Amino acid sequence: MRGIIFLAAAVIIGTGAEAQEIDWKKIDDALGRSAAVTGDVHRYGFPRTDLSVTLDGVAIKPALALGGWTAFKPVHGGAMMMGDLVLLETEITPVLTAAIENGLEITAIHNHVLRANPPTFYMHVSGHGDPVKLANALHTTLAASKTPMTVQSAAAPDVSLDTAELDRIVGVKGKPVGGVYQFGIPRRDPITQNKMSLDPAAPLGMATGVNFQPTGNGKAAVTGDFVLAPTEVNPVIRALRGNGIEVTALHSHMLDEQPRLFFMHFWANDDAVKLAKGVRAALDKMANAESVGRR
Questions:
Q1: What is the Cα–Cα distance from 199 to 39, expressed in whole angstroms?
Q2: For the CA atoms of 94, 138, 49, 270, what is the dihedral angle to 10 degrees?
Q3: Which of 112, 150, 204, 254 has the lowest CB atom count within 10 Å?
Q4: 250-273 mean pLDDT
Q5: pLDDT tens profile 41-100
Q6: Full DSSP string of 201-269
Q7: How far is 94 from 76, CA to CA, in rounded Å?
Q8: Computed from CA positions of residues 38, 43, 44, 50, in that sequence, does the dihedral angle turn out positive or negative?
Q9: What's the predicted TM-score (pTM) here?
Q10: Distance set, CA 114 to CA 121, 250, 294 (Å)
C-alpha cells in the first residue's frame, strides 16, 4: 500500500553528478533486493508475504495493504531515506528500538484499516546521510521483525476487473501489481521537506494511492490513502461516506513537510466500478495534477 517514514534534514537537492556517486549495488546488497527506479529515487519493497491477514472475509494480498517499502533519494551529504514498515503489534517496540539505536528516526505509527485479523500497524521511519549506512541500519531494524529479508518470486495473478473502465473513471492509468490494480495520483502543487522537493511524488509516498483487489463477480476490495491539504480533509470524508466507502484512519506521515499534509485511509468491498466512482468523487475535492482527468 502505500502508505511511509520520513526524516527531516537540512539538505539541498542533489545534482545528477551527486546521484552518480552513490554505489546503488552496495545498497541493493545490504537490503537483499533490487530497487524500482523512478527518476533519481530508488524504492525497495518489503511486502509482508509471511502474514495471512483477512478483513471482512477478504484475504488481503501484500500489494493491497501489506506492502512495506523504503525509498532513497540522493541529496547533498549522501541520501535521504524514508519508508513505511508493516508490522504486527508485537513487533512495534522491538523495531522502534532497533531503529533509534541505529540512527533512524520515527515519524509516525498508526493503523491503516480496521478489523484486520491479525491487526497490522505501519511505522514511518527516515534518515539522512551515508546511503550504505542507512541501508544497513534499515536491515538491522527490519530484522527485529519477521519481515521476509529474502525476495520471494511468484507468478502474479491476473486482475479480473475492467481495468480500462477503472482508468477512465479515476482519470489516470493504473498498473497491475501482485494481483492488485494500483493507482498513483500526484497532487498539483510541489511538496517540500526542509526546502527539498519530494519529487517524484509516487515512489516517495507523496501521491494518493488507490488499490483494487478483485473479490469476485466484478467486485473489489479498495483501500489506500488520500494525500490531503487541511481544507480538503472533510470534503473528502463526505465524498467517501456519500459513496459507501469507510474512512479508517486520518493522520500525518511526516513531521515538517510543506504544505502541511494529512493521509486518509479507506476501505470498501463492493462493485468495482461503483467504488471507482466514489474514489473519483473524492479526488474531485482535491488539488490534483492537471493530468488527472475530471468527470
A1: 9
A2: 90
A3: 150
A4: 95
A5: 999 999 999 999 999 999 999 999 999 999 999 998 899 999 999 999 999 999 999 999
A6: TGGGT-SEEEEEEEEETTEEEEEEEEEE-GGGHHHHHHHHHHTT-EEEEEE-S-SSEES--EEEEEEEE
A7: 31
A8: negative
A9: 0.89
A10: 10, 12, 30
Residues of the chain by 3-state class (helix, strand, coil), percent to 5: 25, 35, 40
Secondary structure letter of residue 127 according to DSSP: E
Instruction: Cell numbers for 86, please give them.
Output: 508493516
The residue with greater pLDDT, 8 or 135, is: 135
Confidence tier at 149 by pLDDT (50, 70, 90):
very high
Cell of 283: 479526488
The residues, any chain, with a CB within 8 Å of residue 288's CB and separated by 6 or more, are: 185, 186, 187, 188, 208
- Spatial CB neighbours of 113, under 8 Å, sequence gap ≥ 6: 55, 65, 120, 223, 248, 249, 265, 267
Compute the distance between CA of residue 163 and CA of residue 173 in angstroms, rounded to an integer.
9
Residue carrying the nine cell digits 484499516: 113
Contacts of 248 (CB under 8 A, 6+ apart): 111, 112, 113, 114, 223, 265, 266, 267
Q: What is the pLDDT of residues 110-130, one digit of tens each?
A: 999 999 999 999 999 999 999
- CA atoms of 129 and 103, how far apart (whole Å): 10
Task: Decide: 77 and 146 in contact? Cβ < 8 Å.
Answer: no
Bridge pairing between strands 208-216 and 257-258:
unpaired
Cα dihedral across residues 278, 284, 285, 288: positive or negative = positive
Looking at residue 255, its amino acid is L
Burial class, 267, CB count within 10 angstroms (exposed 0-12 / middle 13-18 / buried 19+): buried
Any idea which residue has 506521515 for its cell? Answer: 253
Cell numbers describing residue 10? 537540512
Q: Which helix (H) or strand (E) holds 135?
A: helix 131-142
3-state secondary structure of 67: strand
